[in-house]
Every structure is written in C-alpha cells, then in structure tokens.
Specification:
Radius of gyration: 35 Å
Structural class: mainly alpha
Number of helices: 42
Number of strands: 2
Largest sheet: 2 strands, antiparallel
Strand content: under 5%
Shape: elongated
Distance between the termini: 125 Å
DNA sequence: GTAGGGTTAG
C-alpha cells in the first residue's frame, strides 16, 4: 500500500504533462486527483535510509534538515520517497520542506505536484508555492486564488506579492499593496517595508521608496541596501545613493556587505567617479570583500567606464571565481580579444548566455570578415541562442556592420517575433550602409506592423542624415510627427535631430533643437560642437566643450576632432596643441590619423611648416594620407615648393590613383609660373589614368509626397529622360545667349 | 530543523 503511494508520487514528479495538469487544476480550481499513476524508480539512499532500515526511524527534524541541505534532485526525490514510506509526509513541516526543496532546485512543477497532494495546506504551503513562480502575472493570479480559497493573508504573503509587483509594468499594484499593508498593520514588518522600498525603486518611484525608508522605526542592512540600490537604479540619484551608503557606514556603524558595496560602486559607475569608486574598492578590500564575485564584477564596470582597462583586467585576474557576468564584462572590456576570451570562458566551463552572445557579436568590427561573422552566428545557432530575440537583433546589427544587408534582411525575415528593436536594427543597418531609400521604406513598414519608438525615429533620421541626397523636407515631416508624439525631448531623437540639422539643414535649426530641455548625450554634444566647428565659430565651440566637460560627459574622438577643427580654422595653435595633449593625457584617447592631420594642418596653415613637418615625423606608424594632404595644402598656400614636392611624392606613393596630390602639385608649379612642370604633372596624371572624382548633383522635383530625387553626374546620360533634359538644357542655354546679346545691345 | 526583503554584464 505504501509502495503504491510512493510509486504514484514519484511518477507525478517526473512527468511534466501530469505536472502541467496539476498547474491547470490549481488555476482553475478543479479538485486535484492523484489516481491512476504508473510505476516509480526508487534509488537506495543515504544515512537516513540506513536509519530507517536499522529501525531507529526518521524523525521530522532529520527529514526537513536533510531536505534543506540538499540541492540534488536525486537526493530530494529519495527523501521524498522516504517521507512518504515513513508516513512523515503527512506532517506539513515535511511536505512544505519538500515543496521548498523542489522549488529552489529548479523543479517547480514537482513542488506543484506535492502541493496538490496535500489535503489541508497551511499558509506556509501556499506561500512556498507562491514564491516559486517565475512570472509575476502567474504569481499574482495564484495570490488571487489564495484569497478565494480563504487563506488568511500574512506578512510573508504580502512580502512575496509586493516583490512580484515590482516586475509589473503598472505601478498601481504596488500602491494598492502598500495601502493594504497599512490597513493590515503589516507595514511595521521589516520584510514588508524592504519589499516596498525595492518595488518602488524598480518603478523608479524614488520618492515613495524614500518615504517608506524614512518612516521605518527599525532598519536592517537589507533596508539600507534596498534604498541604495533603488537610488542607483533611478539614474539621476547616484549622489544620493552614495550619501545613503556613507550614512549607513558612518552614522549607523553598519558593516556593508557585498550587496551594499556593489550598489554603491554601481552609483560611482553612473557618475564615472573613479576617485570615489577606487576608495570604495579599498574599503571593500579592508573588509575582505574585494574579490567577491558581485563586487569584482561591478568594479570591472567601474574601471572600464572610467577607461582604466588595465585596472579592470587586474580585478578580473584577481577573482577566485568567475561567473558568466564576469566573463561577459571582460569580453566587453577587451573587444579585440573577444573570441579568445570566449574560448577561455568555455574552457573554464562557464556557459555563455544571450548577453554573452550579444557582447561577442558586438565585438566583431567592420574589419572582420563575413566568414568570422558566420562562425559566431554558427555557435549561436548550435547553442540555440540564435532564436533569442536580442541575439537575432544583434546578428542583424552584425551583418549590417559587415556590409551585408542581404544576410541582415534574412535574419530579420526569419524572426518569428519581431520587436520594434528588430525593426530599428534593420533601419539603422540600412542607414549605415547608405541605403536611405530602404531605410525609409522599412520605417513605413515598421509604422504599420509595430509601434515606432524613439530609436526608430532616431534611426530613420540618421539614415537621412547620412544619405547622399538631402531629404530635408522629409526630415521636417518626421520632426513634426516627433513633436506630435511628444518625442522631441527624448535624448536620442533630439540628438539625431541636432545631428541632422547640423549636417544637412541649418545650424540655426540644430541649435534650436539643442536648446530644448533634453538629456544631452555625447552624440548630441558632439553634433552641435561639430556643427559650430564647421562654421568656424571658435568661441561657441570652446564654450560648448567646456559646458560638456563640466556636465561630466567625457569627450570621444569625434568631439576632440571637432574642437581641433575649430582651433585649426581660427589658427589657435596653443589651444589646439593643449587639446591634443589633453586628449592623450586626460581623456586617455589614442589619436586617430585625423587628429594628427588636424595639428599638421593647424601648424601648416599658420606658416609653421618646419614645425608641421617635425610633428608629422613623430606620428606613430608614419603619417596618414590626410596629414600629408594637409601639409601639402599648407605648402601650396605658403609657396614652399621644395617641401611640397617631397610631400606630394610621399602622397603619390601612398595613393597613386588619387588625383588630389597631382592637382595640388600642378597648381603649385602654376602659381610659381613654372608652366612647364605644371603641364608635366598633368600629363603624368593622364598617362597613369588618374581621374578626378566625378561631381554629382541632384534635383528634388518636390511634387507632392514624392521622395524621388533626380541625380546627375557630368557627362551622364543614364537618366531615362536624358534626351529631353539635355534638350531643355540646350534651349535654356540658347535663351541665355539671346538675353546676353540683348543686354549688350541695351548697353 | 517548513515560506518572505537587497546584487553585477549588452
């Protein structure tokens, strides 16, 4: 008889369809049945079984204790069998422990089965199941069921439900549960208050979190941690988070644990506050927590964000245990060794997850071949991560980056679920590859099939920003939609608009968008600075650059290049060199060839040709084309034929088919009155087959909503209406001649 | 000696 019950239960546990049935029964209030169950597999067991055999018997304490310390499914199932055979299962302490075991060891369905077999579950039984759910929706439905079953709500139930409500989209449930806590008097329970702080924190409703925290009579370490992490997550309260951390340590004398440290350091990451972060690092070392996996992981982010990759790497190497987060962070720190690190991670027996793949895919640069991209894609496929939406999105980005929009499109078309992010990846992919028309078409589809968000708009705007053709009227139309949708103060949209108008519209419109209240990112700062730099507005550029640095945004290569350009066009030699030095010293950026070229240009234009040449010689790996071009240009302006010849030769050697050097050299001879050599260079150019780049022009017919642009090159007759167009051009020409004659006659 | 709160990577 006993064996039969045992068999029944063991079967139930390992047959998920049965478990699924029980789940349905729980939700639909169908009375559970445990009849008609196939045979079990029972393994011999452990000291407890020995005790049972030797007639000592197993008591309640032994059974629950054994369950608590066990994590292996096999051991748990065996204990389950013993509990049933010894009759201990009928004690709620034992059956509840069993549910807890199954739930914590990742076999929630088995816990549900046990629950269904308990004749009179108590509130602990219900709570144990309640906290085992993955999804907050399921958990809250189960809580409703508890209420219908007449289970009396206790602080534990409330704590669990509040913590689930933090995951919901809608904050109103948190508010409801908060008032329930006040009504029932459970708000004095520390656990309940802590859960409330966290739930409010997750909804970034920091005022309410703070209120709960402030009104607590007794706070424990978890309360402080919840408050600190809530402030850290909010995004704009990092300073307050630090303040609370300091109060906790200084005023309350509490000893921070790994979670306090990780939250406080995360706040430093947000502020890019290397100094304070390092201090907290030292503090963690003092209390022996610096190599804790959580603390080390966030320390790596700190050093990475503050561009101290070496320190981040040291933290990684000092870790005794590393998890998938540590490895993934390390991959994002050392992108050039991403594949190598990925392999080491697998040797270390750490399984990658979707984030790892997203990072790894991101690490591949346009310099990588399609083949390498396909290899990573293959690993994603084998490990079954390629169907994850975020991984697919990254793959779209990858193929776009590698220049293969066909592959990107294929991934997109194969996706079962397309998020708006997927559309955004596709649109920005077309944008990067200069396929503006496709980007606009995809944007239209996205608007039909999905709900465009700020990123969709930002992507399509960036497409028209980088398009060869100027789609300004389309840009204005998009801008109108954006204002209507209230997205004009979104940092990405506003940033993209600043960039669009800076590059394609007018600096006035760009400045107008920039003056709107939105969170200025590096991109938007760089866009507005670049725009003013192009117009030679030196004072404005320097003022904006100062404002940007003061708002703790670190400049990147593009920003510095813009500032250098401004210095260059206004001949600010000292400032230019100062910025160049700070780029290396203060901002830890390796100059690009363009930055060197800028300084060469700056010195050259000012007539300091010798300094320029000296600087040029110091460029690591030799001067790039742009630096040589700058110097050659300067030689032309200042008439230094000798240096010009040397530079032109170097340039022609580097790029024999580029017309620039030949044209400049020939012009220099011509300026000098040396027509013979000027002609010689031109001849030389012709013999080598070097051609000047073809100039393009375009006409927007501007009819209705049409986006069609008519493009022309010189001597181009590929347009379908070429004959008519040339006809009109000719008749216009003759009309002009007539007009000119008339004017002459009148004179 | 059965149930509840705080945590890191794109």
């Amino acid at each position: 008889m006993l064996l039969c019950r045992l068999k029944q239960q063991a079967l139930l546990l390992h047959r998920s369809p049965t478990a699924a049935l029980i789940t349905r029964q729980l939700f639909h209030e169908i009375p559970a049945t445990t009849s008609a169950l196939p045979p079990p597999v029972v393994q011999p067991l452990t000291p407890i079984r020995a005790r049972l055999r030797s007639g000592v018997g197993v008591d309640l304490a032994a059974a629950t204790w054994a369950l608590k310390s066990s994590r292996e499914l096999k051991t748990g199932s065996q204990l389950h069998a013993i509990a049933v055979s010894s009759g201990l299962f009928s004690f709620l302490a034992v059956s509840n422990s069993l549910m807890c075991f199954y739930s914590k060891s990742g076999h929630f369905e088995s816990a549900l089965v046990v629950f269904a077999s308990i004749p009179n579950p108590d509130v602990v039984s219900w709570n144990t199941i309640l906290c085992g759910f993955d999804s907050c929706v399921d958990a809250l439905r189960f809580a409703q069921r508890m209420r219908h079953a007449g289970v009396l709500l206790d602080p534990v139930t409330l704590t669990i439900v509040i913590s689930f409500s933090g995951d919901l989209q809608d904050i109103s449930v948190v508010h409801q549960l908060h008032s329930l806590a006040l009504k029932s008097g459970f708000d004095s329970d520390v656990f309940v208050s802590n859960a409330l702080i966290t739930a409010y924190g997750r909804h970034e409703c920091i005022e309410s979190a703070r209120k709960v925290f402030d009104e607590m009579l007794m706070r424990d370490l978890v309360s402080w941690n919840a408050m600190i992490s809530g402030l850290t997550q909010e995004g704009s309260c990092a300073d307050e988070a630090i303040e609370v951390f300091v109060r906790m340590v200084g005023d309350e004398g509490l000893r921070p644990d790994h979670i306090s440290f990780s939250s406080a350091i995360a706040a430093c990451v947000q502020n890019s506050d290397l100094q304070l972060g390092s201090q907290i690092h030292g503090f963690a070392a003092k209390v022996g927590l610096k190599t804790h996996i959580l603390v080390s992981n966030v320390l790596m982010s700190l050093y990475y964000k503050c561009r101290c990759e070496d320190s981040a790497t040291i933290v990684f190497h000092e870790m005794r245990n590393r998890n998938v987060v540590s490895w993934t962070t390390m991959i994002s720190i050392d992108l050039s060794n991403a594949v190598l690190l990925f392999n080491s991670m697998r040797i270390d027996d750490i399984q990658p997850n979707d984030v790892t793949f997203v990072t790894l895919i991101y690490a591949l640069s346009p310099q990588h071949s399609i083949k390498e991209g396909e290899m990573i894609h293959g690993i994603c496929f084998k490990t079954r991560f390629s169907t994850e939406v975020n991984v697919s999105n990254s793959l779209i980005n990858l193929y776009a980056k590698l220049g293969s929009m066909e592959d990107a499109r294929k991934i997109f078309d194969d996706m079962e679920i397309k998020e708006i992010i997927s559309w955004n990846s596709l649109i920005s992919g077309y944008a990067q590859n200069g396929l503006c028309e496709e980007a606009i078409l995809s944007f239209s589809s996205a608007a039909i099939h999905s709900k465009p968000n700020q990123y969709t708009f930002a992507s399509v705007i960036s497409a028209i920003t980088s398009a060869q053709t100027v789609y300004l009227s389309y840009g204005h139309r998009l801008h109108c939609c954006i204002i209507k949708l209230g997205l004009n103060t979104d940092e990405y949209v506003a940033g993209a608009l600043v960039d669009l108008y800076a590059k394609r519209g007018s600096i006035v419109e760009s400045q107008l968008v920039f003056d709107e209240p939105f969170r200025k990112s590096l991109i938007s700062w760089s866009a507005i600075i670049s725009a003013h730099a192009k117009h030679g507005n030196y004072e404005i550029v320097m003022k904006l650059f100062e404002e940007m640095v003061n708002s703790s945004i670190l400049p990147d290569h593009i920003t510095i290049l813009a500032v250098l350009t401004a210095c260059c066009s206004c001949g600010m030699i000292t400032m230019g060199r100062q910025i160049f030095d700070s780029m290396i010293g203060e901002y830890k950026l390796d100059p690009w060839p363009e930055h060197y070229a800028c300084i060469v240009d700056l010195l050259g234009k000012a007539g300091k040709l010798a300094d320029a040449e000296e600087f040029l010689m110091k460029i690591p790996n030799g001067p790039g084309v742009s630096a040589l071009q700058s110097l050659l240009g300067a030689c032309r302006i200042h008439g230094d034929l000798e240096l010009g010849k040397r530079v032109a030769e170097a340039l022609m050697e580097k790029e024999p088919m580029e017309s620039g050097a030949y044209v400049l050299m020939s012009n220099m001879y011509a300026n000098n009155g040396d027509w013979e050599n000027a002609a010689r260079v031109r001849r030389w150019m012709r013999d080598k087959g070097v051609k000047k780049e073809v100039a393009f022009s375009w006409v927007d017919a501007g009819i209705g909503d049409s986006l069609f642009m008519h493009k022309f090159a010189s001597d181009d007759n590929t347009h379908p209406l070429a004959e008519q167009i040339y006809g009109v051009a000719e008749s216009l020409g003759s009309e002009m001649m007539v007009l000119e004659e008339d004017e002459l006659m009148a004179a």
